Amino acid sequence: MHVMARGWLIGGLTGLFSMVCAAATPPQDETVFRALYKELVEINTTRSIGSCTRAAEAMRARLLSAGIPAADTQILAPADRPNDGALVAIIHGTDKRARPILLLAHIDVVEAKREDWERDPFTLVEENGWFYARGASDDKAMAAVFTDSLIRYRKEGFKPRRDIKLALTCGEETPEVFNSVKWLIDTHPEVLGAAFALNEGAGGELGKNDKPVALQIQAGEKVYQDFALDATDVGGHSSRPTKNNPIVRLSVGLAKLGAHNFDVALNQATRAYLEAESRLVAPDVAADMQAVLKDPHDEAAVERLWSINPGWNGVLRTTCVVTEITGGHAPNALPQHARANVNCRILPGVPIAEVQQEIIGVLGDAKITAAPTGDPGMQSPPPPLSPDIMGPVRKIADELWPGVAIVPSMSTGATDGRFLNAAGIPTYGLSGMFHDAEGSHAHGLNERIRVSSLMEGRRFLYEIVKLYANGSH
Protein backbone atom coordinates (compact mmCIF):
# COMPACT_ATOMS: atom_id res chain seq x y z
CA MET A 1 0.00 0.00 0.00
CA HIS A 2 2.79 2.38 0.93
CA VAL A 3 4.74 1.55 -2.26
CA MET A 4 1.66 1.97 -4.42
CA ALA A 5 0.85 5.31 -2.80
CA ARG A 6 4.43 6.47 -3.28
CA GLY A 7 4.31 5.41 -6.94
CA TRP A 8 1.04 7.26 -7.43
CA LEU A 9 2.53 10.34 -5.83
CA ILE A 10 5.64 10.25 -8.00
CA GLY A 11 3.56 9.66 -11.11
CA GLY A 12 1.20 12.47 -10.22
CA LEU A 13 4.03 14.88 -9.55
CA THR A 14 5.71 13.89 -12.79
CA GLY A 15 2.49 14.49 -14.72
CA LEU A 16 1.97 17.82 -13.00
CA PHE A 17 5.55 18.82 -13.77
CA SER A 18 5.03 17.90 -17.42
CA MET A 19 1.87 20.01 -17.57
CA VAL A 20 3.65 23.02 -16.04
CA CYS A 21 6.55 22.64 -18.46
CA ALA A 22 4.17 22.33 -21.39
CA ALA A 23 2.34 25.47 -20.32
CA ALA A 24 5.65 27.35 -20.01
CA THR A 25 6.96 26.20 -23.39
CA PRO A 26 5.84 28.39 -26.30
CA PRO A 27 4.08 26.73 -29.24
CA GLN A 28 6.39 25.64 -32.05
CA ASP A 29 5.49 28.52 -34.37
CA GLU A 30 6.08 31.03 -31.55
CA THR A 31 9.49 29.50 -30.89
CA VAL A 32 10.37 30.02 -34.55
CA PHE A 33 9.13 33.60 -34.37
CA ARG A 34 11.16 34.32 -31.25
CA ALA A 35 14.30 33.12 -33.04
CA LEU A 36 13.56 35.35 -36.03
CA TYR A 37 12.85 38.33 -33.78
CA LYS A 38 16.02 37.76 -31.77
CA GLU A 39 18.15 37.51 -34.89
CA LEU A 40 16.75 40.74 -36.32
CA VAL A 41 17.03 42.71 -33.08
CA GLU A 42 20.61 41.63 -32.46
CA ILE A 43 21.86 42.79 -35.86
CA ASN A 44 23.19 46.31 -35.32
CA THR A 45 21.48 48.66 -37.77
CA THR A 46 22.51 52.03 -36.37
CA ARG A 47 23.71 54.71 -38.79
CA SER A 48 27.19 54.87 -37.25
CA ILE A 49 28.42 51.27 -37.46
CA GLY A 50 25.41 49.13 -38.36
CA SER A 51 24.12 47.61 -41.57
CA CYS A 52 20.50 47.45 -42.70
CA THR A 53 21.66 45.29 -45.60
CA ARG A 54 22.88 42.60 -43.23
CA ALA A 55 19.49 42.57 -41.47
CA ALA A 56 17.66 42.53 -44.80
CA GLU A 57 19.74 39.59 -45.99
CA ALA A 58 19.00 37.66 -42.79
CA MET A 59 15.25 38.14 -43.20
CA ARG A 60 15.45 37.28 -46.89
CA ALA A 61 17.20 34.02 -46.00
CA ARG A 62 14.28 33.12 -43.73
CA LEU A 63 11.76 33.87 -46.47
CA LEU A 64 13.68 31.70 -48.92
CA SER A 65 13.87 28.86 -46.38
CA ALA A 66 10.09 28.99 -46.11
CA GLY A 67 9.77 28.42 -49.84
CA ILE A 68 9.15 31.94 -51.09
CA PRO A 69 10.81 32.05 -54.54
CA ALA A 70 14.01 34.03 -54.83
CA ALA A 71 12.49 35.89 -57.77
CA ASP A 72 9.85 37.29 -55.38
CA THR A 73 12.43 38.86 -53.08
CA GLN A 74 15.04 41.55 -53.65
CA ILE A 75 17.36 43.80 -51.68
CA LEU A 76 17.60 47.33 -53.01
CA ALA A 77 20.10 50.06 -52.12
CA PRO A 78 21.88 52.89 -53.93
CA ALA A 79 25.22 51.87 -55.37
CA ASP A 80 27.00 54.34 -53.11
CA ARG A 81 25.17 53.20 -49.95
CA PRO A 82 25.70 49.42 -49.79
CA ASN A 83 24.79 49.19 -46.08
CA ASP A 84 21.39 50.83 -46.55
CA GLY A 85 19.65 47.90 -48.19
CA ALA A 86 15.88 47.42 -48.07
CA LEU A 87 14.21 44.04 -48.40
CA VAL A 88 11.16 43.85 -50.64
CA ALA A 89 9.20 40.59 -50.98
CA ILE A 90 5.82 39.56 -52.32
CA ILE A 91 3.24 36.82 -52.00
CA HIS A 92 1.17 36.83 -55.18
CA GLY A 93 -2.60 37.08 -55.08
CA THR A 94 -5.15 35.37 -57.29
CA ASP A 95 -6.75 38.56 -58.66
CA LYS A 96 -4.29 40.43 -60.85
CA ARG A 97 -6.66 43.38 -61.07
CA ALA A 98 -6.59 43.95 -57.31
CA ARG A 99 -3.94 46.35 -56.09
CA PRO A 100 -1.56 45.02 -53.41
CA ILE A 101 -1.48 45.65 -49.68
CA LEU A 102 1.92 46.90 -48.46
CA LEU A 103 3.40 45.90 -45.09
CA LEU A 104 5.98 48.54 -44.21
CA ALA A 105 8.48 48.52 -41.32
CA HIS A 106 11.89 50.11 -40.91
CA ILE A 107 14.84 48.06 -39.68
CA ASP A 108 17.26 50.88 -38.84
CA VAL A 109 17.46 51.95 -35.21
CA VAL A 110 18.55 54.92 -33.11
CA GLU A 111 22.08 54.93 -31.71
CA ALA A 112 22.64 53.26 -28.32
CA LYS A 113 25.75 53.34 -26.09
CA ARG A 114 26.46 50.26 -23.99
CA GLU A 115 27.77 52.34 -21.09
CA ASP A 116 24.44 54.17 -20.80
CA TRP A 117 22.23 51.07 -20.75
CA GLU A 118 21.52 48.63 -17.94
CA ARG A 119 21.86 45.80 -20.47
CA ASP A 120 23.69 45.35 -23.76
CA PRO A 121 21.40 47.23 -26.18
CA PHE A 122 22.18 44.78 -28.99
CA THR A 123 21.48 41.60 -27.05
CA LEU A 124 17.81 40.72 -26.71
CA VAL A 125 17.02 40.17 -23.04
CA GLU A 126 13.76 38.71 -21.73
CA GLU A 127 13.21 39.78 -18.16
CA ASN A 128 10.08 39.87 -15.96
CA GLY A 129 7.74 39.66 -18.92
CA TRP A 130 9.55 42.23 -21.06
CA PHE A 131 11.92 42.17 -24.02
CA TYR A 132 14.73 44.74 -23.77
CA ALA A 133 17.01 45.89 -26.61
CA ARG A 134 17.45 48.72 -29.06
CA GLY A 135 14.79 48.17 -31.70
CA ALA A 136 12.85 45.71 -29.54
CA SER A 137 9.86 47.95 -30.17
CA ASP A 138 10.84 50.61 -32.73
CA ASP A 139 10.48 49.15 -35.28
CA LYS A 140 11.87 45.64 -35.37
CA ALA A 141 8.81 44.33 -33.56
CA MET A 142 6.62 45.03 -36.59
CA ALA A 143 9.39 44.11 -39.03
CA ALA A 144 9.74 40.69 -37.39
CA VAL A 145 5.97 40.14 -37.25
CA PHE A 146 5.47 41.03 -40.91
CA THR A 147 8.34 38.75 -42.00
CA ASP A 148 6.98 35.96 -39.81
CA SER A 149 3.49 36.44 -41.27
CA LEU A 150 4.72 35.99 -44.84
CA ILE A 151 6.50 32.80 -43.78
CA ARG A 152 3.35 31.46 -42.14
CA TYR A 153 1.15 32.35 -45.12
CA ARG A 154 3.55 30.54 -47.43
CA LYS A 155 3.78 27.42 -45.28
CA GLU A 156 0.00 27.30 -44.85
CA GLY A 157 -0.60 27.65 -48.57
CA PHE A 158 -2.65 30.82 -48.07
CA LYS A 159 -3.79 32.26 -51.41
CA PRO A 160 -4.77 35.91 -50.95
CA ARG A 161 -6.97 37.71 -53.44
CA ARG A 162 -4.53 40.61 -53.69
CA ASP A 163 -0.72 40.61 -53.57
CA ILE A 164 0.86 41.05 -50.15
CA LYS A 165 4.04 43.12 -50.33
CA LEU A 166 6.63 43.35 -47.57
CA ALA A 167 9.09 46.26 -47.38
CA LEU A 168 11.72 46.36 -44.63
CA THR A 169 13.40 49.70 -45.14
CA CYS A 170 16.34 51.75 -43.90
CA GLY A 171 16.85 55.35 -42.82
CA GLU A 172 13.59 56.18 -41.10
CA GLU A 173 15.49 57.40 -38.05
CA THR A 174 17.99 59.49 -40.08
CA PRO A 175 16.10 60.74 -43.16
CA GLU A 176 18.40 63.76 -43.40
CA VAL A 177 21.14 61.30 -44.47
CA PHE A 178 19.18 58.71 -46.45
CA ASN A 179 15.71 57.21 -46.46
CA SER A 180 14.78 54.00 -48.30
CA VAL A 181 11.12 54.84 -48.76
CA LYS A 182 11.82 58.22 -50.33
CA TRP A 183 14.55 56.73 -52.50
CA LEU A 184 12.36 53.83 -53.65
CA ILE A 185 9.47 56.16 -54.50
CA ASP A 186 11.84 58.36 -56.52
CA THR A 187 13.73 55.56 -58.30
CA HIS A 188 11.60 52.38 -58.14
CA PRO A 189 8.01 53.62 -57.64
CA GLU A 190 6.49 50.32 -58.74
CA VAL A 191 8.17 48.47 -55.86
CA LEU A 192 6.04 50.14 -53.17
CA GLY A 193 2.90 50.63 -55.24
CA ALA A 194 -0.19 49.51 -53.29
CA ALA A 195 -3.85 50.18 -52.61
CA PHE A 196 -2.87 51.04 -49.03
CA ALA A 197 -0.15 50.29 -46.50
CA LEU A 198 0.15 49.23 -42.86
CA ASN A 199 2.94 50.90 -40.92
CA GLU A 200 4.13 51.80 -37.44
CA GLY A 201 2.70 54.82 -35.66
CA ALA A 202 -0.05 53.49 -33.41
CA GLY A 203 -0.26 50.91 -30.65
CA GLY A 204 -2.66 50.37 -27.81
CA GLU A 205 -3.26 51.62 -24.28
CA LEU A 206 -3.29 49.39 -21.22
CA GLY A 207 -5.45 50.30 -18.24
CA LYS A 208 -5.72 48.87 -14.76
CA ASN A 209 -4.31 45.36 -14.30
CA ASP A 210 -2.73 45.71 -17.75
CA LYS A 211 -6.11 45.33 -19.44
CA PRO A 212 -6.28 46.62 -23.04
CA VAL A 213 -8.62 49.61 -23.11
CA ALA A 214 -7.86 51.36 -26.40
CA LEU A 215 -6.53 50.16 -29.75
CA GLN A 216 -5.22 52.98 -31.90
CA ILE A 217 -5.20 53.30 -35.67
CA GLN A 218 -3.20 56.18 -37.06
CA ALA A 219 -4.58 58.03 -40.07
CA GLY A 220 -2.36 60.91 -41.10
CA GLU A 221 0.63 62.78 -39.77
CA LYS A 222 1.47 66.37 -39.11
CA VAL A 223 4.00 67.97 -41.44
CA TYR A 224 7.47 68.71 -40.07
CA GLN A 225 8.91 72.07 -41.10
CA ASP A 226 11.66 74.27 -39.63
CA PHE A 227 11.78 78.03 -40.15
CA ALA A 228 14.81 80.29 -39.68
CA LEU A 229 13.98 83.65 -38.12
CA ASP A 230 16.75 86.22 -38.73
CA ALA A 231 17.29 89.76 -37.46
CA THR A 232 20.34 91.77 -38.63
CA ASP A 233 22.03 95.15 -38.09
CA VAL A 234 25.37 96.82 -38.82
CA GLY A 235 26.48 96.37 -35.21
CA GLY A 236 29.00 98.61 -33.51
CA HIS A 237 30.62 99.31 -30.15
CA SER A 238 28.58 98.16 -27.16
CA SER A 239 29.06 101.58 -25.52
CA ARG A 240 26.89 103.10 -28.27
CA PRO A 241 23.63 101.12 -28.15
CA THR A 242 20.98 101.71 -30.79
CA LYS A 243 17.28 100.90 -30.96
CA ASN A 244 17.84 98.23 -33.60
CA ASN A 245 19.44 95.48 -31.52
CA PRO A 246 18.81 92.22 -33.42
CA ILE A 247 18.77 90.12 -30.25
CA VAL A 248 16.20 92.41 -28.64
CA ARG A 249 14.04 92.59 -31.77
CA LEU A 250 14.12 88.84 -32.19
CA SER A 251 13.35 88.29 -28.52
CA VAL A 252 10.26 90.50 -28.74
CA GLY A 253 9.10 88.65 -31.84
CA LEU A 254 9.65 85.25 -30.25
CA ALA A 255 7.67 86.26 -27.20
CA LYS A 256 4.75 87.14 -29.49
CA LEU A 257 5.09 83.85 -31.34
CA GLY A 258 5.25 81.92 -28.07
CA ALA A 259 1.97 83.46 -26.97
CA HIS A 260 0.26 82.81 -30.31
CA ASN A 261 -2.06 79.86 -30.88
CA PHE A 262 -2.87 78.63 -34.36
CA ASP A 263 -6.55 77.93 -34.97
CA VAL A 264 -8.02 74.61 -33.90
CA ALA A 265 -8.92 72.49 -36.93
CA LEU A 266 -10.31 68.97 -36.72
CA ASN A 267 -10.13 66.30 -39.39
CA GLN A 268 -11.76 62.87 -39.58
CA ALA A 269 -9.04 61.21 -37.51
CA THR A 270 -8.78 63.84 -34.76
CA ARG A 271 -12.55 64.19 -34.46
CA ALA A 272 -12.91 60.42 -34.11
CA TYR A 273 -10.02 60.44 -31.63
CA LEU A 274 -11.72 62.94 -29.33
CA GLU A 275 -15.03 61.12 -29.56
CA ALA A 276 -13.39 57.81 -28.61
CA GLU A 277 -11.16 59.28 -25.88
CA SER A 278 -14.11 61.10 -24.30
CA ARG A 279 -15.55 57.69 -23.42
CA LEU A 280 -12.36 56.64 -21.63
CA VAL A 281 -11.45 59.68 -19.50
CA ALA A 282 -12.86 61.32 -16.37
CA PRO A 283 -16.23 63.08 -16.76
CA ASP A 284 -14.82 66.62 -16.53
CA VAL A 285 -12.17 65.87 -19.14
CA ALA A 286 -14.78 64.20 -21.34
CA ALA A 287 -16.94 67.32 -21.10
CA ASP A 288 -14.05 69.45 -22.33
CA MET A 289 -13.42 67.09 -25.24
CA GLN A 290 -17.08 67.32 -26.23
CA ALA A 291 -16.85 71.12 -25.97
CA VAL A 292 -13.92 71.08 -28.42
CA LEU A 293 -15.95 68.98 -30.84
CA LYS A 294 -18.67 71.64 -31.02
CA ASP A 295 -18.76 74.35 -33.68
CA PRO A 296 -17.59 76.84 -32.63
CA HIS A 297 -15.28 75.07 -30.21
CA ASP A 298 -14.68 76.19 -26.63
CA GLU A 299 -11.16 77.69 -26.45
CA ALA A 300 -11.16 77.52 -22.65
CA ALA A 301 -11.75 73.78 -22.92
CA VAL A 302 -8.79 73.51 -25.30
CA GLU A 303 -6.60 75.29 -22.74
CA ARG A 304 -7.66 72.91 -19.98
CA LEU A 305 -6.95 69.87 -22.14
CA TRP A 306 -3.56 71.33 -23.05
CA SER A 307 -2.66 71.67 -19.37
CA ILE A 308 -3.47 67.99 -18.80
CA ASN A 309 -1.75 66.58 -21.87
CA PRO A 310 0.33 68.67 -24.33
CA GLY A 311 -0.23 65.92 -26.89
CA TRP A 312 -3.93 66.77 -27.00
CA ASN A 313 -3.14 70.33 -28.02
CA GLY A 314 -0.78 68.95 -30.65
CA VAL A 315 -3.52 67.01 -32.43
CA LEU A 316 -5.90 69.98 -32.48
CA ARG A 317 -3.83 72.63 -34.22
CA THR A 318 -0.62 73.49 -35.99
CA THR A 319 2.10 74.22 -33.42
CA CYS A 320 5.30 76.24 -33.80
CA VAL A 321 7.94 76.37 -31.04
CA VAL A 322 11.37 77.94 -30.71
CA THR A 323 13.97 75.18 -30.43
CA GLU A 324 17.33 76.94 -30.97
CA ILE A 325 18.67 80.48 -30.78
CA THR A 326 22.05 82.06 -31.62
CA GLY A 327 23.23 85.65 -31.78
CA GLY A 328 26.03 88.13 -31.33
CA HIS A 329 29.74 87.80 -32.03
CA ALA A 330 31.56 89.47 -29.14
CA PRO A 331 30.76 90.43 -25.51
CA ASN A 332 31.71 94.09 -26.16
CA ALA A 333 30.02 94.58 -29.53
CA LEU A 334 26.48 95.27 -30.64
CA PRO A 335 25.09 92.15 -32.29
CA GLN A 336 25.04 92.09 -36.06
CA HIS A 337 22.88 89.01 -36.30
CA ALA A 338 20.48 86.89 -34.28
CA ARG A 339 18.78 83.70 -35.45
CA ALA A 340 16.17 81.40 -34.03
CA ASN A 341 14.98 78.05 -35.30
CA VAL A 342 11.24 77.61 -35.07
CA ASN A 343 10.02 74.05 -35.44
CA CYS A 344 6.48 73.71 -36.74
CA ARG A 345 4.27 70.62 -36.82
CA ILE A 346 1.65 71.51 -39.39
CA LEU A 347 -1.79 69.94 -39.74
CA PRO A 348 -2.23 67.82 -42.87
CA GLY A 349 -3.43 69.82 -45.84
CA VAL A 350 -2.26 73.20 -44.53
CA PRO A 351 0.23 74.83 -46.96
CA ILE A 352 3.67 75.59 -45.53
CA ALA A 353 3.53 79.04 -47.14
CA GLU A 354 0.35 79.77 -45.20
CA VAL A 355 2.07 78.97 -41.91
CA GLN A 356 5.06 81.08 -42.94
CA GLN A 357 2.81 84.09 -43.57
CA GLU A 358 1.08 83.63 -40.22
CA ILE A 359 4.45 83.60 -38.44
CA ILE A 360 5.49 86.80 -40.23
CA GLY A 361 2.20 88.43 -39.28
CA VAL A 362 2.61 87.46 -35.62
CA LEU A 363 6.18 88.81 -35.49
CA GLY A 364 4.96 92.13 -36.86
CA ASP A 365 8.51 93.31 -37.58
CA ALA A 366 9.74 93.92 -41.11
CA LYS A 367 13.32 93.64 -39.88
CA ILE A 368 12.83 89.95 -38.97
CA THR A 369 12.73 87.50 -41.84
CA ALA A 370 11.15 84.04 -41.62
CA ALA A 371 12.06 81.42 -44.20
CA PRO A 372 11.62 77.62 -44.34
CA THR A 373 14.80 75.57 -44.05
CA GLY A 374 15.69 72.04 -45.08
CA ASP A 375 13.60 69.93 -47.41
CA PRO A 376 9.97 71.02 -47.66
CA GLY A 377 7.69 69.01 -45.38
CA MET A 378 5.73 66.24 -47.09
CA GLN A 379 2.18 67.45 -47.70
CA SER A 380 -0.67 64.98 -47.96
CA PRO A 381 -4.27 64.69 -46.81
CA PRO A 382 -5.00 62.16 -44.05
CA PRO A 383 -6.11 58.78 -45.43
CA PRO A 384 -9.82 57.98 -45.07
CA LEU A 385 -11.07 55.77 -42.25
CA SER A 386 -13.50 53.89 -44.47
CA PRO A 387 -15.56 50.83 -43.45
CA ASP A 388 -13.17 48.70 -45.53
CA ILE A 389 -10.36 49.78 -43.22
CA MET A 390 -12.20 49.98 -39.92
CA GLY A 391 -14.36 46.84 -40.30
CA PRO A 392 -11.48 44.33 -40.10
CA VAL A 393 -9.97 46.26 -37.18
CA ARG A 394 -13.20 45.97 -35.22
CA LYS A 395 -13.65 42.29 -36.09
CA ILE A 396 -10.19 41.10 -35.01
CA ALA A 397 -10.09 43.44 -32.00
CA ASP A 398 -13.38 42.00 -30.73
CA GLU A 399 -11.99 38.50 -31.02
CA LEU A 400 -8.77 39.29 -29.16
CA TRP A 401 -9.81 42.04 -26.75
CA PRO A 402 -13.63 42.11 -26.35
CA GLY A 403 -14.91 45.60 -25.62
CA VAL A 404 -11.68 47.42 -26.42
CA ALA A 405 -12.20 50.93 -27.80
CA ILE A 406 -10.98 51.63 -31.34
CA VAL A 407 -9.30 55.04 -31.26
CA PRO A 408 -8.32 56.76 -34.51
CA SER A 409 -5.32 59.04 -34.14
CA MET A 410 -3.13 61.45 -36.04
CA SER A 411 0.61 61.38 -35.41
CA THR A 412 2.18 64.61 -34.23
CA GLY A 413 5.59 63.14 -35.03
CA ALA A 414 6.77 61.60 -38.28
CA THR A 415 7.05 58.15 -39.84
CA ASP A 416 7.81 56.87 -43.32
CA GLY A 417 4.07 57.01 -43.90
CA ARG A 418 4.47 60.67 -44.86
CA PHE A 419 6.29 59.67 -48.05
CA LEU A 420 3.70 57.06 -48.98
CA ASN A 421 0.71 59.28 -48.26
CA ALA A 422 2.26 62.04 -50.36
CA ALA A 423 2.76 59.50 -53.18
CA GLY A 424 -0.95 58.63 -53.11
CA ILE A 425 -0.68 55.42 -51.07
CA PRO A 426 -2.99 55.71 -48.01
CA THR A 427 -0.95 54.58 -45.03
CA TYR A 428 -2.29 53.54 -41.64
CA GLY A 429 -0.40 53.05 -38.40
CA LEU A 430 -1.66 49.81 -36.90
CA SER A 431 0.21 47.31 -34.73
CA GLY A 432 -2.06 45.84 -32.05
CA MET A 433 0.86 46.15 -29.61
CA PHE A 434 -0.22 47.61 -26.27
CA HIS A 435 1.86 49.67 -23.84
CA ASP A 436 1.38 50.99 -20.35
CA ALA A 437 1.60 54.68 -19.48
CA GLU A 438 5.40 54.52 -19.33
CA GLY A 439 5.59 53.41 -22.93
CA SER A 440 8.31 51.55 -24.81
CA HIS A 441 11.23 53.92 -24.14
CA ALA A 442 11.72 54.11 -27.90
CA HIS A 443 14.74 56.27 -28.81
CA GLY A 444 15.70 56.26 -25.12
CA LEU A 445 17.48 54.05 -22.65
CA ASN A 446 16.39 50.45 -22.07
CA GLU A 447 13.92 50.27 -24.94
CA ARG A 448 11.37 47.56 -24.27
CA ILE A 449 8.18 45.81 -25.26
CA ARG A 450 5.94 43.60 -23.18
CA VAL A 451 6.32 39.97 -24.30
CA SER A 452 2.56 39.40 -24.22
CA SER A 453 1.98 42.60 -26.21
CA LEU A 454 4.37 41.47 -28.93
CA MET A 455 2.73 38.06 -29.18
CA GLU A 456 -0.76 39.54 -29.25
CA GLY A 457 0.34 42.06 -31.88
CA ARG A 458 1.74 39.16 -33.89
CA ARG A 459 -1.63 37.42 -33.85
CA PHE A 460 -3.54 40.63 -34.58
CA LEU A 461 -1.44 41.60 -37.59
CA TYR A 462 -1.39 38.06 -38.98
CA GLU A 463 -5.20 37.89 -38.88
CA ILE A 464 -5.97 41.40 -40.08
CA VAL A 465 -3.61 41.22 -43.03
CA LYS A 466 -5.49 38.10 -44.14
CA LEU A 467 -8.78 40.00 -44.03
CA TYR A 468 -7.37 42.98 -45.88
CA ALA A 469 -5.69 40.76 -48.48
CA ASN A 470 -9.01 39.11 -49.30
CA GLY A 471 -11.10 42.28 -49.02
CA SER A 472 -12.58 44.43 -51.73
CA HIS A 473 -10.84 47.69 -50.73
Number of strands: 19
Distance between the termini: 70 Å
Compute the number of helices: 15
What radius of gyration results from the CA coordinates? 26 Å
Describe this structure in words.
- It is a single chain.
- The N and C termini lie far apart (70 Å).
- The chain is 39% helix and 21% strand.
- The model is unreliable at 1-24 (pLDDT under 50).
- It is globular.
- Helix 10 crosses helix 11 (310-316).
- Strands 1, 2, 3, 6, 7, 8, 9, 16, 17 and 18 form a 10-stranded mixed beta sheet that branches.
- It is α/β, with parallel strands linked by helices and 473 residues long.
Brief sketch in words of this structure:
The chain is of the alpha/beta class. Helix content is 39%, strand content 21%.
Write the layout of secondary structure elements.
Blueprint: H1 2-24, H2 28-41, H3 52-65, E1 73-76, E2 86-91, E3 101-106, E4 125-127, E5 130-132, H4 140-156, E6 164-169, H5 180-187, H6 189-192, E7 196-199, E8 204-206, E9 212-221, E10 223-232, E11 236-237, H7 246-259, H8 268-277, H9 283-293, H10 299-308, H11 310-316, E12 319-327, E13 333-334, E14 337-346, H12 352-363, E15 368-373, H13 387-400, E16 405-411, H14 417-422, E17 427-429, E18 434-435, E19 448-450, H15 451-470
Parallel strand pairs: 3-6, 3-7, 7-17, 8-18, 9-16
Antiparallel strand pairs: 1-2, 2-6, 4-5, 5-19, 8-9, 9-17, 10-14, 10-15, 11-13, 12-14
